[in-house]
Amino acid sequence: MTNDQGQTVRDYFGLRLGNHVRLLVPWECSPEVMVLSRREIYPIPGMGDACLGVYSHQIVRANGHSPLLWVVDLADWLSDLMGFQPPVLSQTEELTVVVITDNSKDGEMRPKPQLLGLVVSGVVGKVSLSPEEVEPLPPKAKPVLAPYCTGWARIDGGKMAAILNLPALWAATAIVH
Questions:
Q1: Would you say residue 164 lies in a domain?
Q2: What are the φ/ψ torsions at residue 69 (nearest 5 degrees)?
Q3: In the chain, how many domains are there?
Q4: Which of 1, 19, 27, 119 could pair with 11 in a Cys bridge, judged by C-beta atoms 3.0 to 4.6 Å apart?
Q5: What is the reported pTM?
């Protein structure tokens, strides 16, 4: 895709965690935003704190079944993966969930796309960035962020946003395999 100046751009979907953290996921992951009540999510015993449970997604497949959607608190999950202090989980009844699809093109044959619901504080929406607007991670951030982020950019009025490496996140958890 190109912008008005003829530059090649890539589309992302912006997410907010709390008041200060902005993240971007590639638009190719087919983000869908939904609001769920905590009562609609069924907890699964033995899962980590970041995994809130499963939700029966509204999509009905050709076989007549609705896939279960794993719902994960993204802030808590990233804290676990990166070794940060876990955030205080919001106990609000209504949750903003961004459903992403694993549309990996790594040659692996999968019977159906994998879905994951990420609980976020809010959404920024579609963000188009040229390659010049995407920066490599700062050296101080690389040890912690490099496995799960591919770079960063300024969005939403100049705020920094990390670009999530979705294949690394999919690989980091057993619940999506």
A1: yes
A2: -105, 115
A3: 1
A4: 27
A5: 0.82
Is 3 part of any domain? no
Q: In whole angstroms, what is the distance from residue 74 CA to residue 162 CA?
A: 14
In the structure encoding, which two tokens stand for residue 46, read together? 């033995």
Q: Which domain holds residue 22?
A: 10-173
> Please, are residues 12 and 26 in contact by the beta-carbon 8 Å criterion?
yes
Q: What is the distance between the alpha carbons of residues 65 and 56, in angstroms, rounded to a whole number?
A: 10
Confirm whether 87 is domain-assigned: yes
Greater confidence, 94 or 106? 94
- The residue length of the chain stands at 177
Buried (b) or exposed (e) across 134-164, using 16+ Cβ within 10 A?
Answer: beebeeeeeeebeebbbbbbebeeeeebbbb
With beta carbons less than 8 A apart as the criterion, state whether 23 and 17 touch: yes
Nearest residue to 68 (alpha-carbon basis) of 133, 129, 117: 117
2 lies in some domain: no
